[in-house]
């Protein structure tokens, strides 16, 4: 079974600085998708970024970018120019590409942004 | 466009009581699912459905029941509530499990079982 690990339960960053959240996963599949979801105190789950495993190019969404290392099974999220609104729980998630039916989530990283 | 509507937002039950968490989506999504969120464990899949009349178990199905009679609705039933079922529950949908674009989430239900 696939597993997703986030080794940093909590992290903090100064406003305007850059922070990187780590995620590793275990799978025997070659075709899959990876996601980062953000959960602010409102509890709403918000998609931050999505990566297709067959694409070598790292996904980018404004201040958010990933470092996808397929061989190492690593999928880290970099947040540039951190803002107070970035404070949240961040979850890394995986799903098989071929008719995947089960999203597997990591335990989450709580990010604090210091003014 | 309402998206995924989940009710109630909060619920307190006594041990042994039953209840149904409601979930509806208006995006004609094929795939619907239920997760529970517990501290330090992320979101764990309870049950999912890839279309009307089709359901299957996820990682933690015990104590929960689902049905999918329409494309829009996917209720989650707690048959006999236990304190171990105290959690935050999320319903989520996706256009198709063959494209895996993204999950759309409801706003969650905080459930306490006393």
Most extensive protein-chain contact, per-chain counts: A-B, 25 and 26 residues
Weakly predicted, low-confidence segments of chain A: none
Strand % of chain A is over 45%
- Beginning-to-end CA distance, first to last residue of chain B: 36 Å
Portion of residues within helices of chain B: under 10%
Q: H/E order of the elements of chain A?
A: EEEEEEEEEEEE
Count the E strands of chain A. Answer: 12
Strand content of chain B: over 45%
Summed up:
The complex is a heterodimer of chains A (about 120) and B (about 110). Chain A has about 120 residues and is an all-beta fold. Chain A contains no helices and twelve strands.
Structure description:
The complex is a heterodimer of chains A (115) and B (114). Chain A is mostly beta strands and 115 residues long. Chain A has strands at residues 3-5, 10-14, 19-21, 24-26, 32-39, 46-52, 60-61, 64-69, 74-79, 88-96, 104-105, 109-114. Chain B is globular, with a radius of gyration of 13 Å.
What's the helix and strand layout?
The complex is a heterodimer of chains A (115) and B (114).
Chain A: E1 3-5, E2 10-14, E3 19-21, E4 24-26, E5 32-39, E6 46-52, E7 60-61, E8 64-69, E9 74-79, E10 88-96, E11 104-105, E12 109-114
Parallel strand pairs in A: 2-12
Antiparallel strand pairs in A: 1-4, 3-9, 5-6, 5-10, 7-8, 8-9, 10-11, 10-12
Chain B: E1 4-7, E2 10-13, E3 19-25, E4 31-38, E5 42-51, E6 54-57, E7 64-66, E8 76-78, E9 87-94, E10 104-105, E11 109-113
Parallel strand pairs in B: 2-11
Antiparallel strand pairs in B: 1-3, 3-8, 4-5, 4-9, 5-6, 7-8, 9-10, 9-11
